[in-house]
């Protein structure tokens, strides 16, 4: 069993924390800071724009601007915007929905573990994760 974020989530986290409220950065500049391409940056910024956290302005003076305070956005919020819902009710033991009425052997333990993990992730505002060093977020 592996519990890890997708690489696109880590990169999106780097991108959103590189933005400072009130400053507009072009996709090329963000790509350079995150070690990616401008095209991929545009793909990664799209869900953040749809979520209302980032504003995208086209044109030669355009770019991306943070419009939501990073203190109001949690790590769980970001994960769910990029990767989708964290609780899909999928069974961890079989390819099916796992409901409490017909639970698998791990249902109760997995439910408690998921709740603990999502509670922790929901308690981490992105404003506490704002330093990019050597490609790693700290």
Please give a structural write-up.
The chain is mainly α and 138 residues long. The protein has one domain (7-132): Winged helix-like DNA-binding domain superfamily/Winged helix DNA-binding domain (Arc Repressor Mutant, subunit A), CATH 1.10.10.10. The protein has helices at residues 7-18, 27-34, 38-50, 75-83, 107-122; strands spanning 24-25, 54-57, 63-66, 132-133, 136-137. Strands 1-3-2 form a 3-stranded antiparallel sheet. It has a two-stranded antiparallel ribbon with strand order 4-5. A hairpin with a 2-residue loop joins strand 4 (132-133) and strand 5 (136-137). It is elongated and about 55 Å long. The two termini are 25 Å apart.
Brief summary of the model shown:
With 138 residues, the protein is mainly α. It is 42% helix and 10% strand.
Topology overview:
Blueprint: H1 7-18, E1 24-25, H2 27-34, H3 38-50, E2 54-57, E3 63-66, H4 75-83, H5 107-122, E4 132-133, E5 136-137
Antiparallel strand pairs: 1-3, 2-3, 4-5
Helix pairs in contact: 1-2, 1-3, 1-4, 2-3
Strand order of the largest sheet: 1-3-2
What's the alpha carbon Rg, rounded to whole Å?
A: 17 Å
Alpha-carbon distance between the termini?
Answer: 25 Å
Order of helices and strands: HEHHEEHHEE
Q: According to CATH, what is the topology? A: Arc Repressor Mutant, subunit A
- Structural category: mainly alpha
Question: What can be said about the biggest beta sheet?
Answer: 3 strands, antiparallel
pLDDT under 50 segments (min length 5)? none
- What's the oligomerization state? single chain
Average pLDDT level: 87
CATH architecture title: Orthogonal Bundle
The number of domains is: 1
The share of residues in extended strands comes to: 5-15%
> Can you tell me the CATH superfamily?
Winged helix-like DNA-binding domain superfamily/Winged helix DNA-binding domain
The top level CATH class name: Mainly Alpha
Number of strands: 5
- The total of helices stands at 5
Give the overall shape. elongated
Secondary structure: helix percent: 40-55%
């Amino acid at each position: 069993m592996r519990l890890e974020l997708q690489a696109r989530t880590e990169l999106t986290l780097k991108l959103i924390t590189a933005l400072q409220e009130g400053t507009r950065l072009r996709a090329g500049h963000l790509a350079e800071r995150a070690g990616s391409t401008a095209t991929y940056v545009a793909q990664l910024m799209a869900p953040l724009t749809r979520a209302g956290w980032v504003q995208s302005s086209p044109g030669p003076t355009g770019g991306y601007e943070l419009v939501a305070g990073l203190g109001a956005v949690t790590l769980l919020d970001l994960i769910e915007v990029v990767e989708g819902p964290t609780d899909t009710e999928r069974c961890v033991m079989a390819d099916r929905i796992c409901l409490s009425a017909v639970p698998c052997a791990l249902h109760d333990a997995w439910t408690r573990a998921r709740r603990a993990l999502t509670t922790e992730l929901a308690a981490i505002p992105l404003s506490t994760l704002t330093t990019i060093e050597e490609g790693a977020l700290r």
